[in-house]
Amino acid sequence: xxxxxxxxxxxxxxxxxxxxxxxxxxxxxxxxxxxxxxxxxxxxxxxxxxxxxxxxxxxxxxxxxxxxxxxxxxxxxxxxxxxxxxxxxxxxxxxxxxxxxxxxxxxxxxxxxxxxxxxxxxxxxxxxxxxxxxxxxxxxxxxxxxxxxxxx
Length: 152
Known about the structure:
Helix content: 55-70%
Strand content: under 5%
Distance between the termini: 82 Å
Number of strands: 0
Order of helices and strands: HHHHHHH
């Protein structure tokens, strides 16, 4: 079957519409741009630094050192009447309870104290009471770095 449709349309010049639109809007908005190629994964990762999420041991050590910075450091007593604490007192305040993070943070702190000040230290209080504030702080900071490095 052969169907033929007759129309009464007059053929037009296709460039006529282009010319007419240019006269109506001489500076047309640019059309949608072609989508950009996706950035390589290495560029995406380099642009956004990774978010550090401290482990429970690092958090306990960091919070305890912040407690010492805020309330003060003490020797020869767990808690000074004015609120300062010794190292073990700060650990207890930061941990809240004697949980695994408290125990592991204490072990790491004592290990770092032994690294810096000799193997003779049997406990955190005996080490704390025998050193200056600067020496104690140095051990705290090193223990925090070790916890961060070990992601614990």
